[in-house]
Amino acid sequence: MVGPEFHQGQDIDLEYWRHPEGVIIPDDELKFLLIPDAVEAAMVFDLAKHVHAYQREHLGTPHVISKAVMVTMGGLLPGVYLHDHLAWINGRGFPEVEFGTVGVELYEGPGKRLAFPKVVQDVSIDVGGATTLAVDDLGDFGGTMGFVEELIYKKGAFDVVTYQLYTKPASKVSRQPTFSFGEVRIPFLFGGVLSSSRVRRIIFRNHFSF
Questions:
Q1: What is d(CA 205, CA 85) in angstroms, rounded to the nearest whole number?
Q2: Tag placement on the chain: N or C end, fewer CB within 10 Å?
Q3: Where are the chain's structural domains?
Q4: What is the DSSP string of 165-192?
Q5: Rounded Cα gap, residues 83 and 66, in angstroms
Q6: pLDDT value at position 186?
């Protein structure tokens, strides 16, 4: 079981990770959370089954996903894991999915939102005419993903579907992702990856062994 007793080689209890809790850092209003790599890989595998079901449902239509754009930096690790499950499954009749990136900043620091989102790296692949999957790790207020959706549409995409490992209640109200794994109910900073707008400090919930 994954939790305070988590150690390498033990079974991963994904239900535990659908509503994880961070740890309080002294003199910081945020909570911090580390998703171990093995857990994140299992979460993505779980979500990949839903993406495959979506692909089967839309096979032969313009709504089948043929492009994927990872939002840097948070969307890189889940996007790389997803790539292994999604990119080359054309043997089942699915199209190959081309992966690219886009860099967007919405915060100048923890809890400090910019007045307007800023593109720091444009969409790296041609999404014209394609149904495109936008991949990120966490939906806060829905602002980043909403901005990315609009940007991808402006690049000529036929449709945009969204994929976020976690949402917060505010983001689900404003913009429900097509695919998501779980929800966090309290403020925290999603750990484990370096962000272009802030360094995401990695804090262990208790003592994880790898």
A1: 29
A2: C
A3: 29-107+114-191
A4: EEE-HHHHHH---SEEEEE--S-EEEES
A5: 12
A6: 58
Residue predicted with more confidence, 176 or 70? 70
Give mean pLDDT, residues 93-97: 85
Neighbours of 71 (CB within 10 A): 25
Whether the per-residue pLDDT at 65 is higher than 80: the answer is: yes
Question: How confident is the model over 117-128, as pLDDT tens digits?
Answer: 889 999 999 999
Contact between 21 and 58 under an 8 Å Cβ cutoff? The reply is no
| Other beta carbons less than 10 A from residue 105's beta carbon | 17
* 39, two tokens: 């857990």
Is the C-alpha dihedral spanning 195, 210, 179, 170 positive or negative? negative
pLDDT band (50, 70, 90) for residue 28:
low
The CATH number of domain 29-107+114-191, selected from 3.40.50.2020, 3.10.20.740, 3.40.50.300, 3.90.1300.10? 3.40.50.2020
Convert the pLDDT of each residue in 193-207 to its tens digit.
332 222 333 333 333
CA distance 93 to 123: 27
Q: How many C-alpha atoms does 16 have within 13 Å on its Cβ side? A: 15
Residues 102 and 125: their CA atoms lie apart, in Å, by 9
Residue corresponding to tokens 């966090």: 184
Identify the bridge partners of residue 119 per DSSP, sorted by sequence position: 104
- Cα angle: 98, vertex 138, 76; to 5 degrees: 35
